[in-house]
């Protein structure tokens, strides 16, 4: 499953025009990935050189999908997966390695400090921009001869049958919609997944009473590669150190307060931000607009249906505290690729229920653990009820004083507590 190094003389990834020249009017693939973002492209790259014929369908042009001013926490396990896929050497110089994580609770003086030696790794995690990750994935996919890229293209219908699925796809380059047949369809089309809804897959979960504000700031003081998670009574605030010296802020508050904060004059917003970060970074400057999005917990009741599998946000969403969401999707992609490659090599039908059940059995329980963990953190810390405040601060004290607790917490947050996909070993 690990990808080979890019060679200048290798044939580039196939375009749909290449396939139209060599196939009948109905294009035939083993796998159709709907959604060419970070998660969909991670799955596609994990299937490079697998012998499976893959088509990746993305509705946005690559230049548009790359240009999103967001940054993500990458776990240690996600770094290992990207290393196994052959893109980590390209990504690592452009990300920040966490030299320390600091966890604090509002105005409580105690601070839990975590270091790489607490986990026995070189770093505790990474902060990477959307552009860096997606550009690296897209660049590596250009050398994948078994992967066809359709971008921009839009799936209008999918018909699922006993032996395969037929997708109708509209592109700006073809006068009439294309008909594509695949043994298996992958929904990597986000939290509002059209494929999930059309397949009638129900979800469970809830909308939180909170929304998140995200923004990029330039701090007066160096961030020193320290990631901060500071809990306030209204919700947590995370500060990610970026490779260019700036920081990304993820600030969770009740909906009305979040909207008011977003609309404050810049000087007042920064004044409140400086207060809530405890002055650790000195005076702050705003380097981006303020984005606002509601927070929810969601778990699909099924990860698979007939000839369909869900990955990433199409399958689950969690609270942004501790930065777990993107990492769950990366692990979904690595796990599913491993299962599909093994099934293909064994001569199995990759879209069969028996194969897809292995994916659900692997990923759904692990994702439930993280969804419950992030929900517990948010509810435990986003309150001023005195007994709960006393309990959580005692918990922080134990976490700081007992190395075993710190090690176990870090293993959970970095993804190392679960089953490791082969590509990360």
Question: How would you summarize what this structure contains?
Answer:
This protein has 425 residues and is an alpha/beta fold.
Write the layout of secondary structure elements.
Elements: E1 14-15, H1 16-22, E2 26-34, H2 38-46, E3 54-57, H3 62-66, E4 71-74, H4 76-84, H5 88-91, E5 96-97, E6 100-105, E7 111-114, H6 116-119, E8 126-129, H7 130-141, E9 147-150, E10 154-160, E11 165-170, E12 178-187, H8 194-198, E13 203-219, E14 226-232, E15 235-241, E16 247-254, H9 255-263, H10 266-276, E17 284-286, E18 291-300, E19 304-305, E20 308-310, E21 316-317, H11 325-345, H12 353-381, H13 386-401, H14 403-413
Parallel strand pairs: 1-9, 2-3, 2-12, 3-9, 6-14, 12-20
Antiparallel strand pairs: 4-8, 5-8, 6-7, 10-11, 11-12, 13-16, 13-17, 13-18, 14-15, 15-16, 18-21, 19-20
Helix pairs in contact: 2-7, 2-11, 11-12, 13-14
Describe the structure.
The longest helix is centred in the last third of the chain and has 29 residues, at 353-381. This protein is an alpha/beta fold and 425 residues long. β6 and β7 (111-114) form a beta hairpin. The chain has 14 helices and 21 strands. The strands form 3 sheets. Strands 1, 2, 3, 9, 10, 11, 12, 19 and 20 form a 9-stranded mixed β-sheet that branches. Strands 6, 7, 13, 14, 15, 16, 17, 18 and 21 form a 9-stranded mixed β-sheet that branches. The protein has helices at residues 16-22, 38-46, 62-66, 76-84, 88-91, 116-119, 130-141, 194-198, 255-263, 266-276, 325-345, 353-381, 386-401, 403-413, and strands at 14-15, 26-34, 54-57, 71-74, 96-97, 100-105, 111-114, 126-129, 147-150, 154-160, 165-170, 178-187, 203-219, 226-232, 235-241, 247-254, 284-286, 291-300, 304-305, 308-310, 316-317.
